[in-house]
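Catalogue entry: protein

Sequence with per-residue tokens
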Amino acid sequence: MFAANKHQEPSFSKGNGVRSLVLRITAKQQLMREIVDILSVLTDEAKLVWGEKGLGIDVVDGSHVALLSATVADECFETYEVEPVEIGLELGKMRDLLTLAGPNDLVEMDYDEAVGAINVRVGEVHRILRGIDTNAMDNPNLPQLDFQTRATIDSEKLSRALRAAKFVGELVDLSVDRNQLTVSVTVEAGEGVNVKFESGELSELTCSSPANSTYSLQFLDPLTRKLAGGLTNEVTLEFQDKYPLRLTWLSNDGGAKWTYFLAPRVMNDP
């Protein structure tokens, strides 16, 4: 399990020594929407680990088949004053508040550790949220895997292929060889979808031997839809037979780094 960072004494303390604000940040509403929207694909709540150099997040879905890890550097924020602290956040409440933000609005957030209050300001709206106890939240293990295959593809092309697959079934087959990456679905009724990307259509294709694996579209489809909505231009896929799928991408001019793992769907031999 990930080792949880311990709370440290805040630097934003009052003159009488009473513990007060340990976090005060300002961010463009687009950045906060990105964080909340992507995390919401997997979970309703998240532990936000605020460090001196940026934000770290690791979440897992309720069935423990999908895991998302992210680091958002401090330079992605407009202002960033943080003493290391963990905050549990209900994503739905933050998402609702962000719907009120205009295109040029900034989101201001501070956290009062003494009372567990998260103060969020969007325009003239000020909302107080209660933090969730982070001790009761999952600390997922980040798999350490070496892959023999790697393909980097345009995010819109990947999303379109997976949307097409979703028309036919709930599982998708990914296969790769030295010449192409293939996204396909075949169901018992005989219907199917097959989308091929030749090596020339990919920014990168590395494959020491052909590989094929099957994954659920439950999280993969909505995640890649969001990525194709302008969050990133390219996504890198890594997988091999009966291995988890790993997706990686960058956003915010490389200041935000994302890693997504999805367990394979292993079919029993007849």
Notes: Residues 1-19 have pLDDT under 50 and may be disordered. Residues 21-136 form a domain with the DNA Polymerase III; Chain A, domain 2 fold (CATH 3.10.150.10).
